[in-house]
Amino acid sequence: MTSPAMTEPSSTQSSTAQSLNTELVLASSSRWRRELLDRLQLPYQCHSPDIDETPHDGETPHALVHRLALSKANAVSAHFPHHCIIGSDQVAVFEGDILGKPHTTEKACANLTRFSGQRVTFLTGLALLDTRHQRHQVHVEPFEVVFRTLSTQEIENYVTKEQPLDSAGSFRMEGLGIALFEKLEGRDPNALIGLPLIALCDMLRQAGLDPLGAP
């Protein structure tokens, strides 16, 4: 397996923050997760994990995102022996089916056609691996979306405009995807974008990296 290239500390952090010994690592290449993590105003760096995300036979959606979130953190841990590493993974669940990223326009349109007028559950796995003390925390955050009744033209227009081919559920909550919904139900809407910040803040506090700690 080829090790992915190391990235620099988040470019949105100040030059002062970048000069610090950053203990926090985001095991993701997702721009959306980086933007969410930026909100906590903690210095961090990114490293893209390289793992097989294929579900195991008989694996439940909850078990899948739990395993993959921790696997992503573990996949980069050799590079960061004295850090706290964040891993996250998300799936959509509809009528018992696990739906990942559509990858094609046709699949995205097919998914949204199925979702029209229906309720879809999103499960986001979140892991914090502390390689300083060989500990980890894992949490699975549920969130539900009720879709409007969508016309074929609306679905095609949305997919053409936003190209949500790398997004679980075939939409982007942080973009035009909000126009697809009737209502949202859950504790933390950030989970729908890919990083449950409320749960993450709790994990970070337990690991001694409180976002509200002393400046």
TrEMBL record:
<dbReference type="GO" id="GO:0005737">
    <property type="term" value="C:cytoplasm"/>
</dbReference>
<feature type="site" description="Important for substrate specificity">
    <location>
        <position position="90"/>
    </location>
</feature>
<protein>
    <recommendedName>
        <fullName>7-methyl-GTP pyrophosphatase</fullName>
        <ecNumber>3.6.1.-</ecNumber>
    </recommendedName>
</protein>
<dbReference type="InterPro" id="IPR003697">
    <property type="entry name" value="Maf-like"/>
</dbReference>
<dbReference type="Pfam" id="PF02545">
    <property type="entry name" value="Maf"/>
</dbReference>
<keyword id="KW-0378">Hydrolase</keyword>
<feature type="site" description="Important for substrate specificity">
    <location>
        <position position="32"/>
    </location>
</feature>
<comment type="function">
    <text>Nucleoside triphosphate pyrophosphatase that hydrolyzes 7-methyl-GTP (m(7)GTP). May have a dual role in cell division arrest and in preventing the incorporation of modified nucleotides into cellular nucleic acids.</text>
</comment>
<feature type="site" description="Important for substrate specificity">
    <location>
        <position position="174"/>
    </location>
</feature>
<comment type="similarity">
    <text>Belongs to the Maf family. YceF subfamily.</text>
</comment>
<dbReference type="InterPro" id="IPR029001">
    <property type="entry name" value="ITPase-like_fam"/>
</dbReference>
<feature type="active site" description="Proton acceptor">
    <location>
        <position position="89"/>
    </location>
</feature>
<dbReference type="GO" id="GO:0047429">
    <property type="term" value="F:nucleoside triphosphate diphosphatase activity"/>
</dbReference>
<dbReference type="GO" id="GO:0009117">
    <property type="term" value="P:nucleotide metabolic process"/>
</dbReference>
<keyword id="KW-0546">Nucleotide metabolism</keyword>
<keyword id="KW-0963">Cytoplasm</keyword>
<feature type="region of interest" description="Disordered">
    <location>
        <begin position="1"/>
        <end position="20"/>
    </location>
</feature>
